[in-house]
Amino acid sequence: MPDPRAPNATHRLGDLIVMMIAASLCGASNATEFALFAQERKQALSRLIDYDAAPSHDTVSRLLRLLDPEAFGRAFAAFAAAFARAGQEVPEVVSLDGKALRRPTRRAWQPVRP
C-alpha cells in the first residue's frame, strides 16, 4: 500500500496501522484514542513494533484523512486472508491460562484428610 505522507514522516506507515488496529480491537474509535493507546501501551506494542515516541492525535488524524480507503481495504483483505490461511496450517491450538498451569481444580476437588 503506498504511503500518502511526505517522505520525512517520523513514524512508519505499517507501525501506525498496527497501532490503530490494536487500539481498535481494544475499543478506540478516533484519532485521539488511537494516540493515547499508543502512548499508554508502548511496552506491549514494543513486542510488535519499534517506536521512540507515540504519534500525536494530529499525526493519526492526518494519516486517516490521507489514506486511500480502497487501497487500505484491499491490503487489509489480503492480510486477513493470509492470517486465516496461517491459522488453518496450525494443526492444533491449545489455550492455557495461569489456572490451568497451576492445576487449582485438582487441589480443590481432592478430599480433605483429617
Largest sheet, described in full? Answer: none
Number of helices: 7
Unreliable parts = none
User: How many beta-strand runs?
Assistant: 0
Distance between the termini: 69 Å
Describe it.
- The chain is mainly α.
- The chain is built from seven helices and no strands.
- The protein has helices at 13-25, 31-40, 42-45, 57-66, 69-89, 98-102, 104-108.
- Helix 1 (13-25) crosses helix 2 and helix 2 crosses helix 4 (57-66).
- It is globular and about 45 Å long.
- The mean pLDDT is 85.
Structural key phrases:
114 residues; mainly alpha; 60% helix; 0% strand
In short:
The protein is built from 7 helices and no strands. The protein is mostly helical.
Write the layout of secondary structure elements.
Layout: H1 13-25, H2 31-40, H3 42-45, H4 57-66, H5 69-89, H6 98-102, H7 104-108
